[in-house]
Amino acid sequence: MAVSGRGPYDPQNVFAKILRGEIPCRKIYENEYALAFHDIAPQAPVHVLVIPKGPYVSFADFSQTAGEAEIAGFTRAVGHVAASLGLEDHGYRLLANMGAAAGQEVPHFHVHLFGGAALGPMLHRS
Ligand code: AMP
């Protein structure tokens, strides 16, 4: 079910539980500010999620309230993961759903990293 993308932050969301080690993930990388792991229901040959370690509901929340070191550390983690997975030669896609219109389901900011195949049109058209 889609969420609003606005607070308050729910510490019982699934990514908060992953960060606390309460449920497992297939971890790829972490630094001081970010954790990257495989999406549980991949929609491309490579489908990775990168999440900040801080409690941000959405990109709106992260971009408005995270500190500069967090933003830099998170952004560098995304780039590092893409490069380390060998996605730069053929290209990749980053996507962040914010709120109901985008279909955001998990109320902890995350970036989807897709790659490993031609990814088709940017938006679904019905
Ligand atoms: P979004 O719709 O942008 O909020 O995306 C949420 C993503 O989280 C979906 O692609 C789900 O497949 C993924 N997801 C949900 N639970 C887990 C989990 N326990 N481990 C890894 N990925 C998950």
Give a verbal description of the structure.
GO terms for molecular function: catalytic activity. This is Histidine triad nucleotide-binding protein. With 126 residues, the chain is α+β, with helices and mostly antiparallel strands. It has a domain at 14-92: HIT family, subunit A. It contains 3 helices and 5 strands, in the order H-E-E-E-H-H-E-E. The protein has helices spanning 14-19, 59-65, 68-84; strands at 27-30, 34-38, 46-52, 92-95, 111-115. It has a 5-stranded antiparallel beta sheet with strand order 1-2-3-5-4, with helices on one face. Strand 2 and strand 3 form a beta hairpin. The model has no long low-confidence stretch (mean pLDDT 97).
Summarize this, please?
This protein is of the alpha+beta class. The protein is built from three helices and five strands. It has a domain at 14-92: HIT-like (HIT family, subunit A), CATH 3.30.428.10.
Radius of gyration: 14 Å
Mean pLDDT: 97
Structural class: alpha+beta
Each distinct ligand: adenosine monophosphate
Second-tier CATH architecture of the domain at 14-92: 2-Layer Sandwich
Name some characteristics of this structure.
HIT family, subunit A; alpha+beta; 126 residues; single chain; binds adenosine monophosphate; globular
